[in-house]
Amino acid sequence: MIAFSEHLCFKTYAVSRYITGLYKPYLDEISLTYPQYLVMLILWEKGGMNIGKIGDHLHLDNGTLTPLLKRMEKNGLLSRTRSIEDERVVLIDLTDTGRLLKDKAQHIPEAVQRCFHLDEEKKNQLKSTLDEILSTQSTSAI
């Protein structure tokens, strides 16, 4: 049997928690949780979209996203409106407050990445490997 510390699932879980922890002090400064930050990153980059598209980007379902988005709406960061064409579709867009928060968050990715002490080549290799693993998500039978 493989030793616990050698399980890929444990190592990825531990790294994920480590990275999320690195973000925490920066996100506390702008009053966002890590999942909220991820939503904001998508909306800052892509603009408004429906919940399903956000879920596709984050690999999350609507049931997980809806409470998160409701809290963000309550905090004035985004708006949720029903589509005129299809009332089952909820459209998400940034408010002025949400758009302005982007400037306060600009430095965060670089500050966190500096903590990794990886050169560009290793960062690119890691990104490539993670992309490869994530690409199997849609083709794997669960």
Describe the structure.
The chain has helices spanning 8-29, 34-46, 51-58, 62-74, 96-105, 108-114, 120-135; strands at 49-50, 78-82, 90-94. It contains 7 helices and 3 strands. Strands 1-3-2 form a 3-stranded antiparallel beta sheet. The protein starts with 7 loop residues before the first helix and ends in a 7-residue tail after the last helix. The protein is globular. It is mainly α and 142 residues long. β2 (78-82) and β3 (90-94) form a beta hairpin. The protein has a domain at 26-103: Winged helix-like DNA-binding domain superfamily/Winged helix DNA-binding domain (Arc Repressor Mutant, subunit A, Orthogonal Bundle). The mean pLDDT is 91. Helix content is 63%, strand content 8%.
Key terms for this structure?
globular, 3 strands, 142 residues, mainly alpha, Arc Repressor Mutant, subunit A
In short:
With 142 residues, this protein is mainly α. It contains seven helices and three strands; from the N terminus they run ααβααββααα.
CATH topology of the domain at 26-103: Arc Repressor Mutant, subunit A
| Shape call | globular
Give the CATH class of the domain at 26-103. Mainly Alpha
For the largest beta-sheet, the strand count, sense and barrel status come to: 3 strands, antiparallel
Task: Give me the strand/helix succession.
Answer: HHEHHEEHHH
Strand fraction equals 5-15%
Q: Strand order, main sheet: write it out.
A: 1-3-2
Report how far the terminal alpha carbons are from each other.
Answer: 23 Å
Share of helix among residues? Answer: 55-70%
The DSSP helix count reads 7
Tell me the structural class: mainly alpha
What is the name of the CATH superfamily of the domain at 26-103? Winged helix-like DNA-binding domain superfamily/Winged helix DNA-binding domain
Supply the CATH architecture of the domain at 26-103.
Answer: Orthogonal Bundle
Which whole number gives the mean pLDDT? 91
- Low-confidence segments: none
Question: Whole-number radius of gyration?
Answer: 17 Å
DSSP, total strands: 3
